[in-house]
Amino acid sequence: MKIIKLDAASRQELLDDLKKRGPGNAGQYNDTVQEIVDRVRREGDRALFELTARFDWDGIGPENVRVTEDEVQEAYRQIDPALVETIRKSLKNIRDYHEKQKRYSWFDTTSEGTLLGQKVTPLASAGVYVPGGKAVYPSSVLMNIVPARIAGVERIVMCTPCGKDGAVNPAVLVAAREAGAHEVYKVGGAQAIAAMAYGTESIPKVDKITGPGNIFVALAKKAVSGVVSIDSIAGPSEILVLADETANPRYVAADLLSQAEHDEMASAILVTTSRTLAEQVSYEVGEFVKKLSRREIIQRSLDGYGAILVADSMEEALETVDLIASEHLEIVTKNPFEVMMKVKNAGAIFLGEYSSEPLGDYFAGPNHILPTNGTARFFSPVSVDDFIKKSSIIYYSREALRRVHRDIEYFAEAEQLTAHANSIAVRFEDEEDEHEQNG
């Protein structure tokens, strides 16, 4: 990996390079994606099946687009029982974590005759997207579905690409059953997002779509946002390791490569205050790459978006960390808990040398569907909050409103909204008439 002295110029150059990876810089695909979305919206199943036949399986049709119970049971027969057990252990951790995020309605009354509150209601339906292609992601199945189930969503629809034989990966199907998906459909890509957003003859419309995917999926989610709610528009995966001289270079190198293997656009960055560590990590990365199965993808990722930045101080390093606002941040320093308190922008933060990023991907419990491409400045991980909506509750008695009605009328008239003012005043016109008569 290239080692770079961190300064204002090198930092800006890195930030500019990272921004190129985002969906906002994929204009060459916009027209294609919009055409797919529009076709599915207009033609429903006809477009959905034609596009799926072109990209995934040419045998798709209304009779087999939905995964059957027989297919689910066959998946259980095919999968290693040890993997089923691991999925169940992971599922328990994810449930336990997300249970703590549950929101409840609340109401606050006063003796003056008012009641204010917030009513929490789960979404009626949610669509979760689970990618296929270069890898298989049963972990993403759990991360999408569990918070929706805990929120109380009544119907959870999952879309995922099938193989050329029309089969969905058995681990993905088992994860979907264990997590509690209500329906699973064998479609992927932009056409799956459009189908969930607008509904087709075979796939019902949903209220929200969550889950990561490739650039076509990301742009399709952007295109349907507003028709449905979405979690975020995800970019390629990324990791940033913040380390000092106490870090184990072999561990750091291994963790950087854990994200570089996702795809060629993934980024892996080390920010360190130690030049010695930088050189050691660069060496270890080179040694690991020779042995790993996805070495071609890893090398292209490192060449394009990998870097080791050497900072003069931890303050300078932290400033860079917050500007990058990485999806995954590992803090491997003498006192990672103290350093963590100074970080403002990161999707998920891993503390210490034994909290490597894959722990979060698979097992610890927090959601691994995270903000990418700098959006951790204003987005959060997928959570139970993504699958609820909140309604404000307002009640005033006549006596309570009487005490404040002139203030409200005055405010409305100040905005020249006389119908607003009248809506309040009309409730007390009998009192005003009586006052004038007596006055």
Please, could you describe this protein's structure?
There is one protein chain. 48% of the residues lie in helices and 16% in strands. The protein is built from 18 helices and 14 strands. Helix 14 links the parallel strand 12 and strand 13. Helix 2 packs across helix 3, helix 4 crosses helix 7 and helix 10 packs across helix 11. The longest helix is centred in the first third of the chain and has 19 residues.
Give a quick set of tags describing it.
439 residues; single chain; 14 strands
Kindly name the structural category.
alpha/beta
**Biggest sheet: strand arrangement:** 1-11-10-9-12-13
Overall average residue pLDDT: 95
Uncertain segments: none
Total helices: the number is 18
Number of strands: 14
**Main sheet specs:** 6 strands, parallel
The rounded Rg comes to: 26 Å
Through-space gap between termini: 88 Å
Helix content: 40-55%
Strand content bin: 15-25%
Shape designation? globular
Per-chain topology:
Elements: E1 3-5, H1 8-19, H2 27-43, H3 45-55, H4 69-78, H5 81-99, E2 106-109, E3 114-122, E4 125-129, H6 138-151, E5 155-159, H7 170-179, E6 183-185, H8 189-198, E7 208-210, H9 215-224, E8 229-230, E9 238-243, H10 249-260, E10 267-272, H11 275-291, H12 295-305, E11 306-310, H13 314-324, E12 328-332, H14 336-340, E13 348-351, H15 357-362, E14 388-396, H16 398-414, H17 418-425, H18 429-438
Parallel strand pairs: 1-11, 4-5, 4-7, 5-6, 7-8, 9-10, 9-12, 10-11, 12-13
Antiparallel strand pairs: 2-3, 3-14
Helix pairs in contact: 2-3, 2-8, 2-9, 4-7, 5-6, 5-7, 6-7, 8-9, 10-11, 16-17
